[in-house]
Amino acid sequence: MGKSTGFMEFERVSESYAPVAERVTNYREFVLRLTDDAAKVQGVRCMDCGIPFCNNGCPVNNIIPDWNDLVYRGNWQEALTVLHSTNNFPEFTGRICPAPCEAACTLGINADPVGIKSIERYIVDKGWENGWIAPQIAPVKTGKTVAIVGSGPAGMAAAQQLARAGHAVTVFEKSSRVGGLLRYGIPDFKLEKSIIDRRMVQMEAEGVAFRTKTIVAVDGKLPAGIVNDAVTVVTPDQLKAEFDAVILAGGSEVPRDLPVPGRELTGVHYALEFLIPQNKSVAGDGPNPISAEGKHVVVIGGGDTGSDCVGTSNRHGAVAVTQLEVMPMPPEQENKSVTWPYWPLKLRTSSSHEEGVDRDFAVMTKEFIGENGKLTAIKCVRLEWQGGKPVEVAGSEFEIKADLVFLAMGFTNPVASILEGFGVERDARGNANATTDGEGCYATNVAKVFAAGDVRRGQSLVVWAIREGRQAAREVDAFLMGSSLLPR
Ligand SMILES: Cc1cc2nc3c(=O)[nH]c(=O)nc-3n(C[C@H](O)[C@H](O)[C@H](O)COP(=O)(O)OP(=O)(O)OC[C@H]3O[C@@H](n4cnc5c(N)ncnc54)[C@H](O)[C@@H]3O)c2cc1C
Ligand code: SF4
Questions:
Q1: Residue 206: pLDDT above 90?
Q2: I want to staple 472 with a disulfide (CB 3.0 to 4.6 A). Which of 303, 317, 406, 452 is the partner?
Q3: If you measure from the C-alpha of residue 72 to the centroid of ligand 2, how many angstroms do you get, rounded to a whole number?
Q4: Backbone angles phi, psi at 292, to 5 degrees
Q5: pTM for the full model?
């Protein structure tokens, strides 16, 4: 703890954003990093708590008080080493994590929490700029081979850990580029894709082989709404025969539908049918076939995916964007007495919301209305939540003009046929069945097949995917070698 009175002397300073009028003209990141001095002052607000709730609140258990102190002292390189000791990719989480660590921070009980996420991003960006982040090539190769299905944050974290332990790792990815939802779900304005590319280059130097446009499946067919760029099919049996271990990290890709009358109308899309081509378009793969320019857009679903549809629609030049949420509006200020391990309920306004949206809560969509097969409006009803159950308010039906609707209500489960192809048992929610604690954790019922990330835990967060990838890597290493020195 650099300065024992820091938390009383200094206010929290958040990263600033480029002005709305400027940022909506392009897809570049617009969050402006802290300056050296600001980062130091933010680091010294940390109280170095005896029991640092932040460290427990963070899914990868970042050693936050230590790097806060190192940042205050200007010891950036050591801060980077401590940061990387628990998180392979802090440049991802430093940009797009909802920061449960900050919700847990003790300072948040009666003041603003330490700006942990902004400090994390600061440390790692400085590391890249100064060339401090280099490949860590395993000095000894084990001769063991591991296949990883899926190149999202879970697959990437597992691959990097296992390559550093000396194993020969091959990542199979059905999309044309590496990164999973980091690449094709999350827009460039939240995470520029060069940030994934430079990690990929580092991992290739460490020995990871990426096989993109390759689907691991019995027949290569997928349900509607799931993007597949694969030109090659590799079967689960081939992987089981050719590799010493397999990790399934294919995410939770089946989108939740809204089967109300009119669902078939032109103009009603799953969110990723809009966001994936947009990310491809920014990467130079041609125009997005869905344009929101001059359109009335309604986004159904109030989470990150919905927010990304709002930001993207505004960048297209939509004339009006409305976002509907079925749950009631949370309070604008959190209840300060709700502290870690509980999550304080609070209205969260994203940078995309600030760019222009009409948000409405406790609203249910009853019908999509159209003319000549084309969407023109949606019919909704207001809800009252009674005892945790939604009740329609009589006479509250209303219509919203809509040319485009994006369904952003989450994802229900992984693609069943892929898990079935491996013979992997599913849990009650349809996810790969594997535990996270105790002997045999992350292992499925199928010999030498493991599972990590959204495919195992269901739709979640990048930081949880990184945690699971790291932990699964340790279990695979121990399975292959009898014991493991990889951190858990
Ligand atoms: C639009 C959107 C915005 C989000 N925003 C945020 C955010 O701001 N912050 C946050 O923390 N989280 C966010 N999330 C959630 C987060 O992206 C996911 O929780 C996380 O990416 C899951 O990581 P994963 O590695 O388990 O799976 P994924 O990232 O889904 O990666 C799985 C990969 O496996 C590939 N794959 C699947 N099956 C096969 C197969 N059979 N063969 C070959 N390849 C296969 C897929 O193509 C995909 O590339 C967002 C999600 C979405 C959809
Ligand atoms: S909980 Fe907050 S104040 Fe305490 S150690 Fe963590 S970051 Fe510092």
A1: yes
A2: 452
A3: 14
A4: -100, 5
A5: 0.97
